[in-house]
Amino acid sequence: MEKNNVEDNNAQRIEQLEQKVAQLEAALQAAEEVNKAKSSFLSNMSHDIRTPMNAIVGMTAIGLSHIDEKARVQDCLNKIQTASAHLMSLVNDVLDMSRIDSGRLVLNEESFSLADLIHDISVIVRPQAAQKKQDLQIEIGEIQVENLLGDSLHLRQILVNIIGNAVKYTKEKGRIQVRFSQLTGDSKPVDNREQTAGQNFGQNKIWLDFWCRDNGIGMSSEFLKRIFLPFERVHSEATAKIEGTGLGMSIVKNLVESMGGEIRVESREGEGSYFYVRIPLAASPNENQTFALPKGRTVLIAEAGKDRAVQTGDYLKEAGLIPVYQKSGSQAVTYLTEARYEEQMPCALLLGEELSDMPVLNLAFHVRQLAGQEFPIILVSEADWAQLEYRAVRAGINGFVPCPLFKSRLLGVLSKLTGGDSSEDVMAHRKKDYSMYHVLLAEDLELNQEIAVELLSAIGVPVEVADNGLQAVEKFEKSPEGYYGLIFMDIHMPYMDGYEAARRIRKMDRADAEKVRIVAMTADAFVEDVRMAKEAGMDEHISKPVEPSRLQDIIYKQFV
């Protein structure tokens, strides 16, 4: 009996040891795979960083050697800009993964416009898709709340990463479909998991649903098991020339789960991929928007696309306007001719991208001749307005609403052009005289000073420069009250950093010390950096490299 017990115990111990050995072997294999992936990552990163750097250095040299050839220099600058943007995305991926691994990821809660967010994403990904002649469709379903509360920075990162990958891994002339919609209340994610992470919005919760489908190269079932691991990339002949860190999807999954959401992916090799994301947000306190519109008036919609026409009409009906639909340009001209004769002209014409019989710009020209110079002719389109503006304005178009179509965008433009909204045009800062205002720039690096001064001077703003935080404090202290209307503050400077400089300015015993707007302008670009800037007394935070349009917006908001 005792012998049997000893044998049983030995057998159990042997089994336990075998299990331990198997676990250790599995852990060793996993560690070796991670180390192999890291080595591959470092090798790829060395190549991926050198590629855009080579373009920047090479194109700079070419541009300098052809300095008198404007077209050649412009081409070089465009390529430098593209390479710089790619280099920034590589750096951001590495920094984001570092923050996630160290547990220092901080979610921000701020008001943002869903329309602006989707428009920004479209601006980023459409040029990439256009280069490959891809059919990229960005659609919106039922959107009940446009102004939301949540972390828009990380949300944008999630969406750009997924759509950007679809563009990357889909061949030329491929098809990519993207769709956004919302669910309100306590709707659970599709897999019915309890949400324990992320932000708690309670009864005010709004689920943002997003999916992206492509007919690209797809992924094997084996790779799908590893897609969210760091440093993993599809390795094939089709992807050999595609640059990236292998961190993007790992970052996406961590961000989605940190925000209390879920992500799913389906894919078949050679057929394409499908990504689904659902994230909880909340309605912003600034959600309610009112537009002064001529209720009861008709609006003519010239659009052959049924879905777009119906969506546009529904928005108009909700605003108290009466939509009238025409599919062709000739029908629209006939309708307007009769309406003018009967003195029943609509209050505006909405031009879609699709007409059955003529280009939209031709119709705009005919209508402008018929209806006069003040009649609102509004183009509703996915086109890049910057490229289209010159021809569109010459044809008679005096309003533009970008797609995907949001109700607030449509009603806002209608309100301005039908006389319901007398607010100043948002582009008035281009013509505004800023010469009577004074801006203080605190920046220690001479090259950064030159860039910032040039960008601000191009807007017409007089700029004074402080080489460090201490100088900025002294300049403000010696200036008359109200002299500086705006201060741009770098963070990392000798003698005194930007945080301390902002705190000292706020503590000064003078009326303008609390009121002067201080904007952090720094390479520190994480959410916690924004929080630290605000805690130091700064009003806003912009990260380097600085977009000229962002500076224009800040100047306009402050001085107009």
UniProtKB/TrEMBL annotation:
In the N-terminal section; belongs to the phytochrome family. SUPFAM superfamilies: ATPase domain of HSP90 chaperone/DNA topoisomerase II/histidine kinase, CheY-like, Homodimeric domain of signal transducing histidine kinase. This is Circadian input-output histidine kinase CikA. It comes from the Bacteria. GO terms for molecular function: phosphorelay sensor kinase activity. Pfam families: HATPase_c, HisKA, Response_reg. The modification 4-aspartylphosphate is found at residue 490. InterPro entries: CheY-like_superfamily, HATPase_C_sf, HATPase_dom, His_kinase_dom, HisK_dim/P_dom, HisK_dim/P_sf, Sig_transdc_His_kin-like_C, Sig_transdc_resp-reg_receiver. Residues 7-37 form a coiled coil. Its EC number is 2.7.13.3.
